[in-house]
Amino acid sequence: MTEEARMQLPSTFEFPFPPYNIQEEFMKNLYFVLENKKLGIFESPTGTGKSLSIICGAIKWLKDHQKFEHEQLQQSMAQLQSQKEQLSSNTTDWLVSQSKEIEVTQQLHLLRLQAAKIEEYNKKIEDIKKFKQSNLQKNWRKPNSTADKKSDEVATEDDNLDEDDLLPETVTMNDELEEPKEEATDTKYEPIKIYICSRTHSQLAQFVGEIIKSPYGENVRVTSLASRQSYCINPAVQQLKNMSLMNERCLDIQKKQKNTTKIDEDKRAVKKSKGCSNSCPYFRQAGIENLRNVALSNVLDVEDLVRCGRDLQVLKAYHQCNA
């Protein structure tokens, strides 16, 4: 997509109800700022629906931009393909034509690679949407479930249990994903993300609630970011309270994560497992990916994500890097 290509300012925005003039002006100006990569400073009186205006204006731009980007990419590939065919059929000056054809072919190849990355990303998103119907998500209990208390009681009965025993059965089905896979950063499509910042987690929770009530509540992916102080469920780290100590302890037990081999009575290696006595039992790649899928297929606030992490026995802080 060329830098000159710009989307037209929309005349209407999706909104839970007919927007007031002040809300419509807010969304139009926000859309303009985002599309033209400007810095915008907005203010609006209390009670004028700033949160909904930000949500509906920003997500409208994001979805329009994704569609526009796809159309521009397809158009560019079609133009290059046509140009390549014309150069191939040019017999007047074959040397110059062949040189230009090589250049056009390289440009077309790069655009096709970009299109393939986007297609792969979209397929991944579709898989996450299908995850809503999977058995794994059904295993994540809703708030105030009595099963939450039972799972906590079982977890405290024997602290010496293997970490496999601490996890729900449906989580261990992805044990083959235990080791993180390193991916080249230049082969992965990075979509545009919108970051909403606030002074308190309660304000962010209210914002998440507004997203759910908005017209985009069912088809947008949202994840709440927070520190270890909010998301850590490891008692050994939680009890420290101090943020610096928690960070230091968390990094320390991650370094101690290593493979160990169990030995039977005949001193033979019988099983290779992940972890050691001082490692973090919640640092599991399979669990992290499962939590990521739950988080990205639902609009959840910090408290919901912590509860979900407890159910899946994985730290939300580890998931944040993957989401």
Automatic annotation (TrEMBL):
Coiled-coil region list: 63-90
GO biological process assignments: establishment of sister chromatid cohesion
InterPro entries in the cross-refs: DinG/Rad3-like (IPR045028), Helic_SF1/SF2_ATP-bd_DinG/Rad3 (IPR014013), Helicase-like_DEXD_c2 (IPR006554), P-loop_NTPase (IPR027417), RAD3-like_helicase_DEAD (IPR010614)
Single GO cellular component term: nucleus
Any Pfam family: DEAD_2
Signal peptide segment: none
Top-level taxonomy: Eukaryota, Metazoa, Ecdysozoa, Arthropoda, Hexapoda
Top-level taxon in the UniProt lineage: Eukaryota
Transmembrane segments: none
Biased composition (Acidic residues): 154-167
Residue ranges, compositional bias (Polar residues): 137-146
Keyword Coiled coil (UniProt): yes
UniProt GO molecular function: ATP binding; DNA binding; DNA helicase activity; hydrolase activity, acting on acid anhydrides, in phosphorus-containing anhydrides
Protein's recorded name: Helicase ATP-binding domain-containing protein
Disordered: annotated span: 137-185
Stretches assigned to the Helicase ATP-binding domain: 9-323
Keywords: ATP-binding, Coiled coil, Hydrolase, Nucleotide-binding
